[in-house]
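Quick one: structure for this chain?
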Amino acid sequence: MDEIQTFQQRHFLPSSQKHPAAQVGFILAISQHYCLAIFDYRRQSAHILGRHTTSTVTQSGISSHTGSNWEEWHGPSYWKRLAMLHGWPYGDVAAVHVHEDSRSCLPQTHGCDCGPISGAILEHFLEQGLSHHLDGNLQLPTIPCAHTIRLRMLEMVKLSCRRQWSHYLYLGNDLPDNWDPVDRISQETLATRLEEPQQMAQGHQAIITQLATMLYNCPDCRPKLIQTKASTPLIGPIPESSRSQNDEAPDPDPDPEDNNPIANLILSNQMTPNLKQLLDHHSLTTGTHHRDITVMPSRWRPFDAKFDQYWGGPTLESIQPVMDAGEIWSSSRNAWISGLGSAMLFRDYGYRILPSFSQMFWLGPSVDSLDRMMSIGVSETYDPSHQVGHWRGESHGLSRSSMFPDERRVIPSDVRIMAASEILLDAQRLASEQTRVYETLFVYGAHPIRSQRIILDLELDMDIPDETIISMDIDSYIWVTPDFSPALSLGIYLAPVIDQQVPIQNHNHIYVDILIPQSAEDQGPDGTQREEWWTKSVPLSSIPHVPFGVLGTANHTSNLLLFFPRMIHNHANSSLKATRIPVDVIDLFWNEVVLPSISQEAPNSSLPYVDTTVHEIRYKSRKGGSGQSGSQRPKATPISRIAFERIQRSMRTQVRDQAMLAPYGSFFFVLEGKGVKLWTKDGQDGRYHSPYEALKANFTNLDWDYMMDRSHGELYLDVGISFNPTGQFVGLWRLDALKASFQKGGFKKGVVHHTNTLGWYGGIQAEMLLAHARPSQICFRSAYQLCYEAIRPNNNRPKLISDRDGYHLTEAYIKECRWMHEIYSGGPSRRAYGCRDEYRMSGQAALEVLPYLKERAKAFMKSRPILWIPSKIWFGLMDGRLEGLRRAQKSLKVEKPLNYGIQTSILCHLLRSLTSTPIVMDLHLRQSLQSLDDVERIHDRDGMLFLYDAEERIVKEDNAEVRKIMGANIKSRPKIQVSPPSNPTTTCSDHWPIGPQPSWKDVVQMIEDHPELLMRPWIYDSIWDPGDLNVGLLFVQFTREFWLQLGGTQTTNEFMDAIAINPRICDNLQEAMICWSLNQVNRWIISIKFQACSAGLEGDKPGRPHLSFVQRRATFFPHKDTAPPQSSKWKIYWTEGYIAHYHEMCSELSEVQLQHLHDRLDILFSNLQCLPEANKPTAKSPGSTWTLASGHDSIKIVTNPCFYRIQKIGARKRTIKRPAVIRRPQDFRITIMKMQGRDPKRNKPEQGKARVDRRSAKVKQARKPPTRKNKVCSN
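Got it. Here's what it folds into:
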């Protein structure tokens, strides 16, 4: 009875009288086989589902218990026990009908999946209910695949365990009394369990990965998980306009008749229609090539069937993108599937690699490599001085026909061709005479005097150096290999390196051949039939990879990367490749493959230093005092060459033998070394015979002879040729000559980089056409200017100023501009910067061309591809452009036009173009540049991208999206300054702009919008001079220091110019007082919020009284006893500034002299027009000097009411009460009750509002003495 009572309590079952009999379903375990049993106590029937497989069933139908074998598994006993537990009468067991239908038998192939299938069918009946055939058997659902069910069961168990664990921790020591003592966990065990979730998570991830691998390799599950043609249209090839750089692939081989095993798929006649449809309509397989393994030419490494696992893997159909994770299961299971995303996305898609996967070039010696380098594409009559059409500035005749000659000529006056040196001279000459000279010349491309349109012609600045020095070097090396082998030893990371970005984030123009998986038709029933082999050239930057090790010497550090081609896939809903492997996926590889392989090969003496799990290593890699695991790079353990060869074999064996590790198969290594040009330049100044010999001598940890052997992989070297002048010159590539050279050498069109938006000078980067790349063994060329080295960051990732920083003129914007100005005006203007031409080629081709490159370069220089100009002129042009952009941004900040955000984006784009070629990401910026009438055409027409008429072409107002990007308040709009009415009323005059007695609200509004109209002009009066030199100097010092404290983000160009002319700002009392006039404050501060002051005014002044300017003197000249805290903005004034000087003066004066000093200062302050809204410091508050208005980036400035043109403050305006929209509740109630026929007076509503206790808090909290009890006298 106790068992029955406990069961009913735990399952919330009522007594038998209130709980009618129903159906009960449960799963039976019979001899390691699971089946489903459903007892229907109302029908007196039992249904047994899945007890037999199809091979063991001979007949079907309905049978009684005598005909069935339910006594073998104690069916009658289960029938009785379940009825007793639920409190139901079980009746006559002999009368129970037992149904075992052959339709409910499992197929023989699903015999091992009996448990998950039984659970899924039981879940279906619990959700949908029971439905019967006419013969009494149950109508069965479609038997699902067990792989999806297992994943769901795992997540359900994890979720249940997590919930029960949280309940146990919540209960603590207060466990129910009916719990078994065995269920109680000791404190020691509890502490251990709390430290193990990381290790348990790794074990769970291993199970999930194994189940996910089985799921995607199952032919029954895969069609339900992918987007088939019936549900979603097949994805077509990516158009060229939207294809990302990582998706770029080499062009197909144009010569299929040269025994090349790679042929264009269009020319193949072996492709089946189904395979052609799959390849043509899938984005991941566009650009595939047919690989004929029966041909074994000398140009490619022969096929080896044992090189990779080519048979029995996932088919081509499984490559199709996975639907959203929430759609894989029912909508009620979204939470269960969310933790499986990484294992499902980074799975084995069926890609494999061939022995020749690393080959981009043909085997054998290179052909015509030297002829492809520095080819001369211009004719002998090439004249570089004709970069600019000088006819623009010359006179034009009006004759149109010889029959009607016209001697008149027209000289264009709206265009002026100028050299950079001429623009710099005009800027320096006119800057002191006119305003906005730098913006006009360097940004808008107009001359300040005649407003002529400027055409920049750098050929007018050309100067020829005495000598051009040609040098050669090797800048970097990349080695792609299936089996890495160093010369000495290397360090392997004991845990995955977790970075924000993958090591090869950008396309490095190196491809590997990836074998496309078989189609289901091609694979065949046994998985060994394969007739068609198709490959795709994939960039290294598109393959998931991680840092694996490091090879370091005293000279340089090389990175060893590990690539996983089987995981290649796109991001969800994107054409970009997913290359950053999630932490849980890569942790599994380290725990199951890398660390066991290292431990297996490590000697016993090294085992204490080799951890066995990633969790241990991340715990040890924390920073000192840091509680976050893995906050530093993991340790790299040294491994010898022989040991690493054994580790690689062990890694491949473990991946091959475990099905859950299939996604990590086919891995290969890439060694990358950058920035070694200074170690190899000219063989280190002649010490070595060639740059390659210097490379071998300086980097002895690499076996260069082994790497040169193309049977071990493909070695790429970046061979660079530098052209450096003698003297202080800067070299610029002429783009017309450079483009002709690229075309003559067989390179693609590539990407043109316009240096500083110049039209005819810059650099080019391009890959070589495949037809020329394979025989010449050159894949990429890059030509650029070395003047970039003046501001090049160490990681070659320039710091780009954001549009938001420019919009708000932040300190980061000002600091970056200041640093760039210091560089352009400093050392680089006195140094030489030439040009450079780099070629990425095979190591074998590099050895063949290095001895002849200098002679080739000398011949190339005869075509005059480089423009030489003095360094001072070039960096002066860069600095002038920078100064113009900075000033233009400040001017826009002051004016705040309606399209301030769009104009800011254009200016910041030009600012970023000083240091690099920025990528235009924002749509509004792209549209604005397009509206400028073709930026490329402006380059060619004006010589530089000038914004001459940009304001007329771009959008006139920012939309909400632009304001959101800029970080502006989306709801607010730029304030439109509305001028006062031109026809004043009778109460207004020149003496009273808003009347003699305006309301305070009108005064406040007028001061905010038009303070110059309400306030009298400020005129200096010599009577204010205190006659005491010390007082005047003290006020001058106060003015000077207070203005100098104001940051550069808030001051205008005029203020910066004033400081440049006079760093002291003011030299006498009159100049100091002018600094606080309304006109000067407006000219020096970018954004101001003027505030009205009511001190001393008569009339109706609402709110708290304001401090007068005389009273504010005590704020700026405080008593020495009120010292500010250390964090106060006033602190420097007290220690080093004018307040310290003021206190020193006060200590030396008598009381009468001190009062005289204060009186003189009060006179000066009472005659100031403006002051900052400053707050003096206290013991608890640091105070403030310059204050920003709340919610704005404007500085609060208080105006002096002595200058207001009003008589007094008038009475407040009475607001007209608007008519009510709805009726009063009382009247509405009366109307409703009358309409219902009830008397409103007899049915009055109860007063729901409680009486308000209006007593004061003191009275409410007063102590109430206890009530004295009456004493009862006993007789």
